[in-house]
Amino acid sequence: MTTAIHDPFIRTPEEKNIAARAERMAAAFAEKAAKHDIEGSFPFENFELMRKEGYLKLTVPAEFGGDGRSLYEMLLAQERIARGDGSTALAAGWHVGLILHWRTVRSWPPALFKRLCHDVVHHGAMINSFASEPATGSPSRGGKPHTTAVKTDGGWFITGRKTFSTLSPILDQFIVTASMEDTDFVAEFLVRKDERVRIEETWNTLGMRATGSHDVILEKVFVPSDHLITSFGQGQSRTAVDDGAGWLLHIPACYLGIAYAAREYAIRFAGGYRPNSLPGPIAELPHIRQLIGEMEEQLIVARTYLYSLADRWDRVPEGRSLLRAELGIAKKLATNSALSIVDKAMRIVGGASLSRSLPLERYYRDVRAGLHNPPMEDTVIRSLAERAIQEVMGTNE
User: Residue 394: its pLDDT value, please?
Assistant: First the structure.
């Protein structure tokens, strides 16, 4: 894995340093990515390196000792980490992304958020939010959790099963959504791992095999009253401030990072492969150059949209809630572009691309996971249609 001579999306010396640190880590992650993919094992050593590098505090507010980095800067780093290992990037993205989100919307009780930030900065703590369940599907669809929170003296007892619980092997604390008994409300709780929390290693998938997204089972886990983060009714917003969910751009950044790695591998292959039937490398063939040009076009378009949108999100806080549809487009565009880029890279390399001794088949499997990360494509298209109809019909009234 190499560094581009010039990346037009790096605007300042500070951003160059952020990118360089991520590239150093990505190079180390790439060395063991195939091993963890084959085994389906969790890359604990990758997160230990992130702790040593101070990366886990990337988006923690500066007032609490963190780096306080912007959405744009977070994406620069996350995209590069994905070039080394997509699973590690996607998993880390939930941690740094959620902290950016909570920093923005301030939905946590202040003392509790300060404690979380302290743990991240000084102890390398990590966190994620577990909302998916077998019976409800994606939480973005609005299903009510089967996980229940029952009121007791001094707090709550929480019981349930969460699926797609990324980072579960390494977390000592996490957020859980649960239905509050005898009410129509759903709440988010900070749960600290104890003997009543069990991880069932169910994660055995086609792609993103090293994210540790196992099932987490809670059996009457006690949560103190002051660990209730927020509660909300059906159809209500869970936060007072609407940030448009900009933090979820860590997802398209991840898949574009994987696509970048596939593009780089294919170009290097094309430049060095010289079958004896040709006078030079296959990179000189018109149809190979056509594929390379198409890969480049798709990568440039998707990255340009992603980073321009992140810049808008950073610069205009009061307009963030209005960017939700555009944020969805960024994920849809990036994911489908990544799928196409990896496919073209495999066409360039040919039959060898199917070999498990090469990284392309892993890239191919990993980018397909993007189709199942939020927001879903049909949701994005529906929201665009609703906005367009409202705009036109409103104009005619």
Answer: 83
